[in-house]
Amino acid sequence: MTTTNPGSEPLAFTQALHTYLPTPDISKTLVRGLENCGYVDSLKDWSYHTQQGPVSFEGETDRIYESGNSLIVETPSGNRRITAIGSDSTVVWNPGPEKAARLSDFPDVAWESMLCVESANALGDYRVLNTGQSHTLGVMIGRE
């Protein structure tokens, strides 16, 4: 996704590519590559934490990591490598059972078989474009 500023004033913005990935079982799914990274947890009053070990899922998860590192998503059916382009932040999201039940466009049990790993420009990784400048945010997903 390429964003261009056609205006006459600087443009500050955040963005994320909402990449939904399948898994046969979210409770047996891990995201590796964010170990020891700082993150903000939107479910805990936007408090700051440091990731200990791989990211695992025990319910609703909504975190913004200060990292654009390549990641490995391990699922029972195989692994995927996620490589961000133009990003120094990553959002990891799963609605968990309660939020999934409240989402009108999301089946109640779908949270058990998906996760979202988003290449992003968020929090301190926001971008500023001067007149005529562009920024490209991308993601490459491959089998590991």
SS content category? mainly beta
Q: Could you say what the CATH topology is called?
A: Beta-galactosidase, Chain A, domain 5
Low-confidence stretches: none
Strand content: over 45%
- Shape verdict: globular
Number of helices: 1
- Radius of gyration from the CA trace? 16 Å
Q: What's the level 1 CATH class?
A: Mainly Beta
The helix-strand sequence is: EEEEEEEEEEEHEEEE
- List how many beta strands DSSP finds: 15
On the 0-100 scale, what is the average pLDDT? 97
Explain what the structure shows:
The structure is a single chain. The chain has 144 residues and is mainly β. It has a single domain, classed as Beta-galactosidase, Chain A, domain 5, CATH 2.70.98. Helix content is 5%, strand content 46%. The protein is built from one helix and 15 strands. It has one helix at residues 96-102; strands spanning 2-4, 11-13, 15-16, 20-22, 30-32, 38-41, 47-50, 61-65, 71-75, 78-85, 89-94, 114-121, 127-129, 134-136, 138-143. Strands 3, 4, 6, 7, 8, 11 and 12 form a seven-stranded antiparallel beta sheet that branches. A hairpin with a 2-residue loop joins strand 9 and strand 10. The radius of gyration is 16 Å and the shape is globular. The model has no long low-confidence stretch (mean pLDDT 97).
